[in-house]
Amino acid sequence: MADFLPGAPAGIYYDGASETIFNPTTGARNALYTTEAKRLGAEVACRAVKDSENGKVTHVVTVSCTGFFQPGLDYHLVRTLGLAASVPRFHLGFMGCYGAFPALRLAKTICDADPSANVLVVVVELCTLHLRFDGDTDALLGGSVFADGAGAAMVSTRKPDGDALILERFDTTLTPTGEGDMAWTIGDHGFSMRLSSYVPEILHTNIAEAVAPTLAACGLEIGDVPHWAVHPGGRAIVDKVRNALELPESSIESSRRVLKDYGNMSAATILFVLDDLMRGGTMQNGDPVLAMAFGPGLTVETAVMRKA
Q1: Of 121, 156, 191, which marks where a domain is finished?
Q2: 214 located within any domain
Q3: Cβ within 8 Å of residue 308, ≥6 positions away
Q4: Exposure string (b/e) for 170-186, b if CB count within 10 Å is 16 or more?
Q5: Which of 33, 89, 221, 231 ranks highest by number of CB atoms within 10 Å?
Q6: Which among 200, 201, 221 is positioned nearest to 211, based on CA atoms?
Q7: What is the pTM for the complete model shown?
Q8: Which residues are catalytic?
Q9: CATH of residue 58
Q10: What is the rounded CA–CA span in Å between residue 13 and residue 129?
């Protein structure tokens, strides 16, 4: 979103002609978020609906923690896709990097209750809108791992002809410590992310205990899971999770690849990791995937999915 080339036209952060760095207000950042979230949300939603063979959309669930507007993205998608005005809509906001998990969990709950449902889940995150150039080196370095991204999925009880994942189980837990180590607050010049250097170590200490109930409920042990969709909040986080669970490097290649190619796109990231897994050609029908993401609190969200 920022262009730091000399002579570049004025943007939200920098005017190349005058070589001036700006520190835009939250209002200015959110105005750009509103425009771009509508555009990106509609783009990924249209693609998901087009690729789906499960019929019309009956419910809409949207996720974002990087901006706000009303009528919201859920409303905008109903209008853009030409859906009935009576379609139920749900927005899950300001949850952080794990936001896609409660959205998929909600979609599964809807489908379990109504087998005819086709739930559209759309996640849009514009993290770079909250970069800060105010002399705080820690904030600048912390923000540098984040990126912009959007993804969508259709959730249905019907098995599609193409590649898909079965949503088997979802769980959530809080680590005993870490409430102050990861936080997301609204300031006058954007949203402020608190991401301390202790987060990877907290996850290293607690991740085995966090995933144990999910695995046990599905009759699995760590060694039974060939594919792990670890939210790549940063290289150290992926490293610590792999080391703590003693996972083979091959099982987390998708997480590393998404971090390298796209960065940490907050809640949208896990959809990229799952997509990369399915496109990789190594998954066999019935293979379990353990997906996980982390957010303020520290909150740990886990899910077991299987290749359909």
Answers
A1: 156
A2: yes
A3: 159, 160, 163, 164, 165, 166, 285
A4: bbbbebeebeebbbbee
A5: 231
A6: 221
A7: 0.93
A8: 97
A9: 3.40.47.10
A10: 9
Q: Is 249 inside a domain boundary?
A: yes
Rounded distance, CA 133 to CA 143, Å? 10
Q: Are 184 and 95 in contact (CB under 8 A)?
A: no
DSSP secondary structure letters along 240-285: HHHHHHT--GGGGHHHHHHHHHH-B-GGGHHHHHHHHHHHTS---T
pLDDT, residue 137, reads: 66
- Please confirm whether the linkage preceding 298 is cis (ω < 30° from 0): yes
Q: Point out which residues pair with 150 in neighbouring strands.
A: 124
287 & 227 share domain: yes
Among candidates 66, 141, 61, which has minimal Cα distance to 101? 61
Pair 245, 224 in one domain: yes
13: confidence class by pLDDT, cuts 50, 70, 90: confident
The whole domain housing 72 covers 14-156
83-106 pLDDT tens trace: 999 999 999 999 999 999 999 999
Terminal Cα distance for the chain, rounded? 38
In 3D space, the residue among 164, 236, 252 whose CA is nearest the CA of residue 201 turns out to be 236
Q: Do 169 and 302 sit in the same domain of this protein?
A: yes
- Domains in the chain: how many in total? 2
Both 150 and 220 in one domain: the answer is no
Of all residues in the chain, the percent with pLDDT exceeding 70 is 93
Q: Which residue, 118, 139, 156, sits at the end of a domain?
A: 156
Contact 189/165 with Cβ under 8 angstroms? no
pLDDT above 60 (res 237): yes
DSSP bridge partners of 299? 174, 295
pLDDT of 162 strictly over 90? no
**Residue 46: inside a domain, yes or no?**
yes
The answer to whether residue 8 sits within a structural domain is no
